[in-house]
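SEVERITY: medium
COMPONENT: batch folding queue
REPORTER: lab tech (J.R.)

DESCRIPTION
The queue accepted two submissions in a row. Attaching both inputs and their returned structure tokens so the on-call engineer can compare them side by side.

ATTACHMENT 1
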Amino acid sequence: MLEVLKVGFYDSIQDLGRVGYQQYGVPTSGVMDVFSALKANNLLGNDFNDAVMEITMTGPILKFHCNTAICITGADISPSLNGTPVKINVVQKIVKGDTLAFGKLKYGLRSYLSVLGGFKTESVMHSRSMYQRITKQFKIHKNDKLDIVAEPSLEFIQKHASIKWDDTFFKTKIINVFEGPEFDQLFDTQIEQLFSSDLTVSKNNNRMAYQLEEKVENKLEPILTSLVMPGTVQLTPDGNLIILMRDCQTTGGYPRIFQLEEKSINILAQKYLGQKIKFQLITLK
């Protein structure tokens, strides 16, 4: 068992999401940065869909009440074990009574904590991903006690298991997109603006959607409510660009001008207020 002594800015349990229920209006949810979460599980030898803790910007303080092993990937939020700094992207053995804390954010936005065997929290619709009105709670609270595998065998874990990390994933501003269903309705001037300039992440960014500060003059006609998904870029009547993320709704009525490739959703999930992105079109012709 793991006890939450203090919460961070936004901590939740996530896996790869709730697949197959979108026709009922249920969001996919799941980890914002799939790439980093998979690395955390892979290093521990976990199943690819084992639940991890997603930690945003500032981290919690966690006390372990059993022996286990952990791995932290994604953003570097200066983790420490019993007051001693620990590296990310490295398997770390945990002894009953150990305390894990986080400090200054060095790069990225979201960090992923995997435990051996994954978190064994509530499962709803074949997923442990926390989401409001689907699971009992949508984020972790102080004094929560989270179930993990008690006293697991650690014999197979290599003491120095680690992976070389390419930090260009966090530094790049290029966001690759495909043409969306309403892309052909854009004017040449709009297309020029969208692809020629850097765009800025606004303060309105969360697990549901990212908005950008710059506006695009928009005279497109509204569309009938239609299917949307994580990575869909919508253009609102007042010219705002909204990039839907993992907790997004399943339908929307704004023109869908782009669709992000999966890697670019992961890249965007590590961006925060004031950082720049630049759209780059992937052509399939």
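ATTACHMENT 2
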Amino acid sequence: MSRNALWVAAASVLVGVVVLGLKTMAWWVTGSVALLSDALESIINVAASLGALVALHVSSRPADANHQFGHYKAEYLSAVVEGVLVILAALTILREAYNGLMDPRLPDQPFTGMLFNGAATVLNGTWCWVLLRVGKAHRSPALVADAKHLFSDVVTSVGVLVGFVLVPLTGWPQLDPLIAGLVALNVLWMGWGLMRESVAGLMDEAAPPEVVAHIRQLVSSHAEGALEVHDLRTRHAGRMTFVQFHMVVPDQMTVAAAHAICDRIETAFAEEMKDAILTIHVEPEAEAQHHGVVVV
């Protein structure tokens, strides 16, 4: 994991604290149930950003005697925790929305509250875009999960702002908690999706079809001298993709020649898929299965 990604994760904590301050001020001047719910979600955002930072730090550690394949899955654990926190935030918002429906009232100073909340929303939306770009560039589940978490916060804030526009126009105070409740349901759905994706990573889900197709093309193009490659398997662990396959070579081929083919394939992967770890099992011609990757 590059230092750039770690710095972005650390900056997320600072951005979360600033956004929390802005939303707390918006709630304080208005007394709005929806803004209180929005501020509560931002508290969880700060905690989630801290979790992502810790996960990135742990995943960047080199392999050791107890973790011989590295610490890459720490990012998935962070993403699962973030999913749980998003769901907790949604349930908290639903509770506050229910309390608001039981005791509805019009917000105070709605324009001032909109300014504070609007500034927080713009900051969150901008940082969400930065996190998503860096997370995808570094193939970091923790940063991508943090970006999705922030996006759920942006959706919440937009819903709250819509409510703030409609409540004074309609004079209907129940609209404030109703908007908060609807947004909470959307946040709940996003949290479930985030947890589902993270658990798939912990369960060693295979690489996406387009990545597997690229792997097959790399092997086929750089395994000249071999006969075939079969039992190609992939799995993800954080930003890393583990690739393993059986490579069949002619019976008369020397160990040195077979090793040279493996070196050529590994060099190609190092140039085009830097975050891939290969395991190649060399087999004699009798083990050919006549399926899988036909070497060109």
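NOTES FROM REPORTER
The helical segments are 3-30, 33-59, 74-102, 110-137, 141-170, 175-202, 209-222, 255-272.
No errors were logged for either attachment.
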